[in-house]
């Protein structure tokens, strides 16, 4: 390696040398030229430097361009490419000293009409590097005009407007780079910036003149030329090289372009403005230039009624002011009144669009121009300049005066836009809007009170709501008092909903001193009036609205330590006991007190400096400490109220209990937990006595299922409270907690069992809880195994939820627990409860993941196994072996459930199973196609469908004859849709392997099925081509959005995406529409009601048979009902398979309807994982289906969404 070695050069050339054997001709050609040049360099014993290569390729360029004519296009292209590659590596001194010679040689490649776009682009790159290497003296040299750098720059500028996009883009990029790197000198501007600006503006003026003279048919080409000029201006302004002397001209031209109705022209004009503003805002030295730009733009103000120019000008002012504020906030604040006074004049325009643009412009200037830091009050934490504070204060005062002047009859035509502006001002300025905007607020409030004559009610509400949120309720109500207890004054009850929606971070004392007395006032009014009078109902509504304010006054209150004292808390607690209707409101207030302070103290809204200054995080932390000391008393109240409330209405109380458990001290938690445990023990003893007494008296045992409105037993209530406390009690109480689980899991009561399992599930949500469970894992596993037979069906879901969280933490030597409960999990796949079925699938999957991680299965510890049985290594293969044991079950129910379980696991873990395991599992399960039991065969068909999609094609192909032979046994069975299922699977095989191969493998007597499928396909294609498909068919062919891939694999029988696309194409682009026509009345197309009868789906004619089908009855040929009392031979035939159960459970969940809103297909909602309710403990009693059953509106449930 010589000293002349250049690693950057070698790296670039190496990438070209490797293409010597490329199949692409252009790459191969370049590699050959490089090889020839390098051989020549080696023959002359020259060093391989960038200079040597550059000189060699310049000589080569001379050979292919003679007398300004390109003699060899391919060679010229390759040579120019190498020169573009080598020029940046060539010393600048060489390029500067040989500028004229190099430019003379490269010019023909740019100016020649025969030059192709790739050659020009490479030549532009060489010219760019050549111009970048020139110093200031070279740029100012005018002695040889033809070969000066400016001459080369002008040639480059011509190419920036070239009609070829890539050439134009490359030239514009070169101009941008040249102007961004001016030669060293006293001026920061490039010597060629004025030439570039003049060229761009002159071309823009010329093209705009041509555009006006051309006809409309030629507008498109003229618009393109204008856009090219605008793109060039954007490139120049983006480099901050636009000369000051041309700023006024370019602003005038850009505004002229913005008058156009062409959106592309407007967009490019605004982009040029934005680049101009942004480039100056990023450069502190350009602030003086920015001042002149702002002045020029404001001087170009159009007439207020100029519908063409006013809106674009306002948009430019908004962009300019925002960029100006980012460049220098202090200068912007000083000019802020000028902006406002200039822009506000456009509200007098008669054009609605101009008024809207004026409002949006002012909103942008205020919200984006005034920074939040400028609104802070000077303090140690926020060292704001006093001068800036005073400037902002003066600007706000002037803004308020300007806005007040708008609230007159003169501007009534744009009052809606003005009100929207005022609303945004309150949101932005927050507390700084007080007191300057109080007069404005009073005027709007007076308008709002005159509801009959004021049409902008919603806009006024937005203004007042924004003021409440910004200034606080005290400031707003001082200007707009409620006057609810003063009949002679204007009442403003309409303020109560606005207060409810906007109060936050307010003084709680205001509610206690000003609003709470109103409640007593109206309660006395109700007491003195007739109960059913209209006035009494109005008074009751006002009381409810005032109480609804309490949770919002408790949302981050500023004076909580002094105002939320024991007396106030005790008063609210007594109201919870005495007035049931207030429990929701008071619980929301208690909950909001804790949660708002917790979230705020943890760092939420830390970027809101105005709020941080007004209410520091330390204050929120102090509030939490105060609440923590009161939590014990509040929890006692909540526990008592909880025990007195019916399960349907307990959700909000639990939601309130949890935050207070979260902030309680460890000692308080322990004391509360001990009290609940004591009450639980007493309640369980009481339950035992009641059961024993009932048995002695021969009475019925206490009902384990709660009826609606019934308060549960005390033992159940205490278990609910323990479940809630599990996540928060200290580790010292875990022994007692596990003891409760040990005691209650064996109680013969579904309500108690369910809550007992929830204890383990909730405990495993915390790390400390997992550690405690791991310490007692053998005992817990033993309890789970022993209680499998005694667990009530309603408690299955809670049990499986606990298993789902227990299995992942099993140590490597505790994997015997998995086969111990595996049979229970598999059989639960057939459980009648939907939630239990879903959880059973989840547990199956969790056990598979745990076995996949590895470990030792101590087989001797599995119940029923020989103590001498050797241990096995945990693996996915071993897990499938465990599951396969269920195939030897004694009942069809167990075998079917096992096949469903294997099908699910087979699909979920198909990518993790080796080929042998796939073959072994599939061959074993497919044998059950020969079974005579329909339940087993139904499950096996589901597995076959999965295996067709999952197994490698060659494996399925090898077993195809046997598979089809077994499948065809059920191709003639109509019951259970077996025939349809088999046909769908054959269609899948045809799509995968082709009709010929499937026809060869299928038994000869069943080949007519293949012919039938082919015939159906041909008919569908023919109808699609002829356009005879009905809209219903097209809709039926659309793919269903399944919830999971497994569901899609099992139930999606539509055509695969690789099929012929003709079938999925609609017959034409227009959708058909139908009009429902009555037989009794002729259709009147002039009737407006006819519009209501237009439908996009074809109306169906309902007959007696259709009605019977809806009711579930069959009819004979005469249309009479046929009732078949024959009992099915196979009682298990009508039960859905486990996979069906899994998919049906998913299908019955929420689905997307119109506008992506979720809806349920059934009336009963699925429970959440942590559902504390007992409504879903039992399956609903089977109701007799009748064709005359009415569909009733479901009863409304508690809106909190949590049930007990």
UniProtKB/TrEMBL annotation:
RRP12 HEAT domain location is 348-645
**Basic residues bias: where?**
1190-1204
Q: Which GO terms describe its cellular component?
A: nucleus; preribosome, small subunit precursor
Fetch the Pfam families from UniProt: HEAT_RRP12_N, RRP12_HEAT
Read off the lineage from the record. Eukaryota, Fungi, Dikarya, Ascomycota, Saccharomycotina
Q: Where is this region: Disordered?
A: 1016-1087, 1162-1204
- Tell me where on the tree of life, at the top rank, the source sits: Eukaryota
Q: Which residue windows does the record flag with biased composition (Acidic residues)?
A: 1053-1066, 1169-1180
InterPro entries referenced in this protein's UniProt entry, alphabetically = ARM-like, ARM-type_fold, HEAT_RRP12, HEAT_RRP12_N, RRP12
What does the sequence similarity comment in the record state about its family? Answer: Belongs to the RRP12 family.
Q: Which PANTHER family match?
A: ARM REPEAT SUPERFAMILY PROTEIN (PTHR48287:SF1)
Q: Which GO terms describe its biological process?
A: maturation of SSU-rRNA from tricistronic rRNA transcript (SSU-rRNA, 5.8S rRNA, LSU-rRNA)
What is the species of this protein? Komagataella phaffii (strain GS115 / ATCC 20864) (Yeast)
Q: Name the principal localization, coarsely classed.
A: nucleus
Record localization: Nucleus
Q: Please identify the protein, giving its name as recorded.
A: Protein required for export of the ribosomal subunits
State where composition is biased (Basic and acidic residues): 1023-1035
Q: Which UniProt keywords apply?
A: Nucleus
Please report the stretch or stretches of sequence annotated as the RRP12 N-terminal HEAT domain: 19-241
